[in-house]
Amino acid sequence: MALRLISNPSLVLSSLLIFSTSLSFLSHASDILPQDQPLRDGQTLVSAGGTFELGFFRPGKSAYRYVGIWHRNTSTQSVVWVANRENPVLDSSGSLIVNATGNLVLTDGKGNVVWSTVTSSTQASSNYSMHLSDLGNLALWAGDGTAAWESFDHPTDTFLPGMTIRLDVKKGIRTLFTSWKNPDDPSPGNYTLGLDPLGSAQIFIWEFGSKLVWRSGQYNGQGFTGIIYRPLNSYGFKLMNDIVRQGFMYYTYSTYNNSIQKFVLEPNGVEKCSVLIEDTGEWTTVWEQPVNECEMYNYCGINAKCSVTDTPKCSCLKGFEPKSIGEWGSGNWSGGCVRRTPLDCQNNLSGDGFTKLGSVKLPDLSNWLSLVNDGQECERSCLGNCSCAAYAYTNFGCFTWGHDLIDIYQLADGQYDMFIKLPASELGSKSKVWIPIVIVPIVVVFILATCSFLWWKYRKQIKDLLQNGGKKESLFSGNRSQIEAKIDFSGPSQYGEEGDEGKGSELPLFTFGSIATATSNFSDSNKLGHGGFGHVYKGLLPGGEEIAVKRLSRSSGQGIEEFKNEVILIAKLQHRNLVRLIGCCIEGEEKILIYEYLPNKSLDAFLFDPTKQASLDWKMRFNIIEGIARGLLYLHRDSRLRIVHRDLKASNILLDEEMNPKISDFGMARIFGRGQNQVNTNRVVGTYGYMSPEYAMEGLFSVKSDVYSFGILILEIISGKRNSSFHHIEECPNIVGYAYQLWKEDKAEELIDPSIRSSCPIQQVVRSIHVALLCVQDRVNERPDIPYVILMLSSLSSVLPTPKPPTFRFHGSTDDAGKVESFSTYDVTITMLHGR
């Protein structure tokens, strides 16, 4: 079949008579464009089955020309892909050609390149061709039968059968569909659609690249839990999810009964699914979302539900009340709701239960418990976890949710029920007066029996101890009652990754003698390092387990409060990117922490050592950046109470045997109470160069303080240089000023560590520098939060805000505000601010 030329027949005839080379062009099939044969405005390619057509088109009322693919035999123009959506051809002089290096190139009448593909080929060859398939995929084929480029990998606004919506965290690939600006302008609009970058297998729609406006809910094998729609598997819709092992997942679908179908992200942010009625050539919409307020993401705020049949649409969940009565009464529901009464388990009671909320779109940010096999076990798992606020057991497993329940939509005929945890007082349960009456005598008897047993077993040692005036070493590390008086282990539990929880309040306590034995009496040969609060030693327990022992010096700034802080936080927090605490010891003046042993020590040992820098390639460095971000995400959002680390730096990032990062040293961390966004402190602690301006100067800190430190850390990881090493540069006394100057002059790649500069993906590294500069903005409200930082790092397509130039300089000098007095021990600085 000859190539179909939609133009003047007489012009074709004259061309054949004048140009003999056109004969070879016409001998190809109509769905193939051979190399070096131009496709001009007015000519088209048609797929073999006649379903799709490729050529030049003019959208709506526009005067410009674009190259695109559209459905044929429809009553109205139905464009599914646009090549030059950002650079139109101004007239009908455009020409499309496959050049010698295997790239598809669009030029205007003056020979200027308007748009082109980018393939890995660099050598000239005569074996390339372009092919339009009946799926609507435009592919560049090399002579060896491989596809050098496909339009399906570079979608615009339309999801067709055979395409994939993909997330590949290892390769940094994320398929994003972007709406047209308006029906007359196919340039990128305000809305994008893709998979959740955190890997939840949900489809999201964002506005302006970051504002979440809609989510599909989880995929259950037949459809999405947040969509009342015909089961998608009847259309061949399926999910391939290997995010845990291989780091990727994708959705795809096939045609149903040979129907012609498409999903389109409209310019107004609505996703429509349409089917072509072939008899009339008309498209009929079979599904679209979001179409009402309740389908908008978190329309009613946290811990509230939205129902289109209720008046007003928003209401607090049972047991919750509006966070702001005034705003709620005026119709502003964005603040959401808070609990009226804390859960009983937070007060060491046992009266918590559940209330059913039926037919809902399940909330966002769920934890899937893969080892739970039935509803009763799912309920028990949530009931035994103080950080679990709700659960749901569905046909695809057990899901639990943390402190805040986000984006709940009450559906008219939804198929999923969830159960919200409430204290006994909210459930109407009778007061359990009998509990203390029965339990207290049992506890007293147990304590007396235990004391009698211990006295009988260790009576000789106790007698010797009393006779020697208490100078003989105790058999116990202070004894548990003494320690628990200093360290309150009854604080709220924090749930960890994948629902894992820091269970119970018991932390193993070690005697000083056993720790001394494990470390060869704190031998210098076992010393791993030192910091402002003491030395760290490697040890070996009798069972063969290697440990890291942090022995706090008596002259250190860390007192009982810091020690208590670190023990409580690390013992309760469980996450793969946080260091694990094994036990502790308090005996006399000794305060000791026992951690898991990490063979690669801390990040600074690699990053700032010229002999080891090259071993940290970019892939490894980016993995460390992402791991730290995930750890901060857990601290700032996913744990029951937000936690600010306050001393994030390279020496406090430990590396395991696979070079995965773990945040350590929680001695200066602070827990934020419910509803707190910012705290003021009279005691500023941290490290110069990492502290945010508002913290260093005013003692104000928040989660954005950690974001600032994280930005500094990203710049150090990229450059391989300490922040303090830039003081000799007069114009840029720190790494922030230096990085910003390079970025402003389009020389950001000069910041990259020379040992990896030639082998790293420049675009990704420069983007990471851009993200870091956003993290270190002087003003708190201009810094992104950690979820947005992760989104920006994982996506190469979203447009980033422009960072403002840094103006903050802090050198420890005195000013009119007060006196700055600093005390340094190694790399840790404790700063006290004193008003005049």
Question: What key phrases describe this protein's structure?
Answer:
single chain; 836 residues; alpha+beta; Agglutinin, subunit A; 6 domains; five-stranded antiparallel β-sheet; 18 helices; 21% helix; disordered C terminus
Note down, in words, how this protein is organized.
- Helices cover 21% and strands 26% of the residues.
- It is an alpha+beta fold and 836 residues long.
- Strands 29-35-32-33-31 form a five-stranded antiparallel sheet.
Shape: globular
How would you name the oligomeric state of the polypeptide chains in this document? Answer: single chain
Task: Figure out the total of helices.
Answer: 18
Query: Architecture of the largest domain, according to CATH?
Result: Orthogonal Bundle
Largest sheet: number of strands, sense, barrel closure: 5 strands, antiparallel
Mean pLDDT: 80
Poorly predicted segments: 1-29, 468-505, 809-836
Strand content: 25-35%
> Which strand order does the major sheet show?
29-35-32-33-31
Secondary structure elements and pairings:
Blueprint: H1 9-18, H2 22-26, E1 32-34, E2 39-40, E3 44-46, E4 52-57, E5 66-71, E6 79-82, E7 95-98, E8 104-107, E9 113-116, E10 129-132, E11 138-141, E12 147-150, E13 158-159, E14 164-168, E15 173-174, E16 177-182, E17 185-195, E18 203-207, E19 211-215, E20 238-242, E21 248-252, E22 261-265, E23 271-277, E24 282-289, E25 304-306, E26 314-316, E27 320-322, H3 325-329, E28 337-339, E29 353-357, E30 360-361, E31 367-369, H4 375-383, E32 390-394, E33 397-401, E34 408-410, E35 418-422, H5 424-427, H6 434-457, H7 459-467, H8 480-486, H9 512-518, E36 527-531, E37 534-540, E38 546-552, H10 560-572, E39 581-587, E40 590-596, H11 603-607, H12 618-638, E41 643-644, E42 653-655, E43 661-663, E44 670-671, E45 679-680, E46 683-686, H13 693-698, E47 700-701, H14 703-719, H15 735-744, H16 754-757, H17 762-775, H18 786-794, E48 819-825, E49 828-834
Parallel strand pairs: 25-34
Antiparallel strand pairs: 1-10, 2-7, 3-4, 4-5, 5-6, 7-8, 8-9, 10-11, 11-12, 13-22, 14-15, 14-21, 16-17, 17-18, 18-19, 20-21, 22-23, 23-24, 25-26, 27-28, 29-35, 30-34, 31-33, 32-33, 32-35, 36-37, 37-38, 38-40, 39-40, 41-44, 42-43, 45-47, 46-49, 48-49
